[in-house]
Task: structure prediction
Amino acid sequence: MSAEIVIVHLYPRELGINGDVGNVMALEQRATWRGASVRVHNHDVGGELPEVAHMVHIGSGPRSGQELVLDDLSHIAATLREWSAQSVPFLAIAGGWQLLGHELVDADGVRHPGAGVFNSTALLTSHRAVGEVAAQSELGELAGFENHGSVTTLAEDAVPLARTQRGHGNAAGSGPDADAAEGIIAGSRIGTNLHGPFLPMNPVWADWLLERAAALAGVALGDDATGQLGVADIYAEKSRRAIRDRLGL
Result:
């Protein structure tokens, strides 16, 4: 067993324009508050993956960023699928989620194979979905901000991460549809379009992922003696409430 939790952060330079590195920072800090050690392995194009991973994170980015990593992704896809089969937790955000699905179809109709970690496909479009989102998941409410030009379709047997809610603050055509699927959850893998970043805004999911990663690493997560977890969670709840209030929910 490992004495530390190894988090593989895929393509932080190319796919990190929406502050999604905050997800990794949140996992590191919450682990530290609970007495556990985390090592982050940043995987760049042309680099080598570590022999062991206890969690994988990939953020979002523009089409140009996706193009820069496509070839490298094809070389590491088999390892990512192997880790997925071993129940390694994944968190994939927006453009990163698109790349880890089965296929990404660009605006010109060109089809690019994805890594096959998620049972979903993505189509890039000229329309952008931009706005705040509130939703209900199996662990309660979640919230965040979406900003993407794509339609991601789940396979028939895939399970959405959450169902969105519409209030009077949603502008017609710009916000999510009421009761629409948001994201995907499969085993220990999560894909979502939400920024915020997602985990600081929704810490219940940070703990959900962290506990699974710690179990794989054989690392014990203790109680937070500093009380900082509770403080962070209060700020997160206030942030989610502010979004719900602006949406009129």
The chain has one domain: 5-246.
